[in-house]
Design a protein that fits this description.
With 132 residues, the chain is of the alpha+beta class. It has four helices and five strands; from the N terminus they run H-H-H-H-E-E-E-E-E. 31% of the residues lie in helices and 28% in strands.
Length: 132
């Protein structure tokens, strides 16, 4: 962590101290150093993927649920329809459809945070784990 902090400070100082003149097009040239390049690569790795950042309008009311991210990670973020079958103190069950056909069943056990995802048409269980 100290090395990344030092690299970040060095990159900020190099950027702030860069007094290069504007080039012919009026754009300021930026000096590239190993620290700047490493910082840029680290920032790109931390950026969420497109499926993580885009929530389908149909999913907005479900996206705040603790199991939602893991479900979309496992099955993709297509235009699925989430149909709540059960939601009580112990568990929440969804039937997930695509184009009117049931594709997946999810069972989230609330007191243990265990999520099971089952592909209905012959796929069987595709995920069974505890989510954080």
């Amino acid at each position: 962590m100290n090395k990344s902090m030092i690299a970040l400070i060095a990159a900020a100082m190099l950027t702030a101290c860069n007094n290069d003149k504007a080039d012919e097009n009026g754009e300021k040239s930026i000096q590239t150093t190993d620290e700047n390049q490493t910082q840029t690569e680290n920032e790109q790795q931390k950026q969420p993927t497109q499926t993580e950042t885009q929530t389908s309008p149909k999913h907005e009311k479900w996206s705040s649920l603790p199991e939602y991210d893991k479900i979309t990670e496992q099955i993709g973020n297509e235009d699925y329809t989430f149909n709540k079958e059960t939601d009580n103190d112990g568990k929440r069950v969804f039937l997930i459809e695509l184009n009117g056909e049931k594709q997946y069943k999810t069972v989230f056990v609330k007191n243990t945070n265990r999520l099971k995802i089952i592909k209905i048409n012959g796929g069987g269980e595709i995920y069974n784990g505890i989510i954080k």
